[in-house]
Amino acid sequence: LPQGLVASATALPDPAGPVFASISAGKPIRVLVVPVRQSGQDVTYLLVGRDSSDERERIFASIRAYAMIAAATLAVAALVGGLVAGRLLLPLRRLREASAFVSHDDLTRRVDVGHSIDDVTDLARTFNTMLERLDRGSLEQHQFMDDAGHELRTPLTILRGHLELMSVHDAAEVAETRDLLLEEVDRMQRLVADLLLLAKARQPDFVQTEPVRVADFTHHVMDKIRVLGDRRWQLDEAADAVVVADPQRLTQALVQLAANAVKYTDPSSVIALGTKIEPAAAGGNRWTAQDTLALWMRDSGLGVALEDQHRIFERFGRAGTGRGAEGSGLGLAIAGAIAQAHGGRISVQSSYGHGSTFSIRIPVATPGGGPR
């Protein structure tokens, strides 16, 4: 027996029934004490013991292993959590940096959002969209101010010069100067109205769409443009269709094209209006993948040289050869803006000296809301 086992067992309190106990006899021992009672005799105790040192060592080893595993798991979880949190919060940090960088003078900074799909990245994308709108609005504002300042400077100079030179004692000169100044004021009013129209062209409510019967619309426009000048007016074609568009804006664009044609033609020239539905081409690009409504203004006038055909659609753009008619240089830009507001485009087919055909093409949507 281990040394001290009997003494340690004797020191246990007398149990009333079987009990487990731990004693130490040089090593830990787990014992079961069972009282055995016989009539007329003293109580005898049955002691059964087992060395528990190996079991304790295994338990302590398991605890140490579990503690090490838990610590390693916690460290890995912290590392992974930090990486994930950093990845999730990266757009927010970039958002903060971009917000600190952006000013009213520079709206070009954007947040790099990558290809993640989560709420924080969506917030960064929304922030970029907001900056793009602000940047576009700022550019349009600056362009409007530059255009207005550039184009109004000349008539204002003319007004000031004639007022300074006018003799108030000469009634004839006063009347002549008055007529000239009123003409310049009218020109400035038209210019400002055109500039404001172009500034509004990118706003969502610029076009107010409704179902339009193209044939009736074409004849209505023809009745309007006939009075613009003594020309040989013709109707090429009128489409028999109903489309969703803004008839007032399209009328405005066609009137601009007709007025432009009148400027560069003589009374013997032909000016023709036409509309038709161009069917979708299978496998085509976005202009041919669905039906389009084509509206055109054709003339047999001076024509546009190839090198000028892009420039004439820009603000204040003018052809460099032979087209020196008076005007603001905004008519074709306005027509192009109306086409773009309908999701379409404007183009010209012309050669210098052989007339021009200006066309507006817009995607066709039926009154039901879908492509035709």
Q: Please, could you describe this protein's structure?
A:
46% of the residues lie in helices and 18% in strands. It is elongated, with a radius of gyration of 45 Å. 20% of the residues are buried.
The percentage of residues in β strands lies in: 15-25%
Shape: elongated
Q: Radius of gyration in whole Å, from Cα?
A: 45 Å
What is the residue-averaged pLDDT?
79
Number of helices: 7
Strand order in the sheet with the most strands: 5-7-8-10-9
- Tell me the total number of β-strands: 10
- What are the segments in which pLDDT stays under 50 over at least 5 consecutive residues? none
Q: What's the helix-strand series?
A: HEEEHHHEHEEHEEHEE
Outline the fold blueprint.
Blueprint: H1 5-10, E1 19-24, E2 28-36, E3 44-51, H2 53-101, H3 119-165, H4 171-200, E4 210-213, H5 214-225, E5 232-237, E6 242-245, H6 247-263, E7 270-278, E8 292-299, H7 331-341, E9 345-350, E10 356-363
Parallel strand pairs: 5-7
Antiparallel strand pairs: 1-2, 2-3, 4-6, 7-8, 8-10, 9-10
In short:
The chain is of the alpha+beta class and 372 residues long.
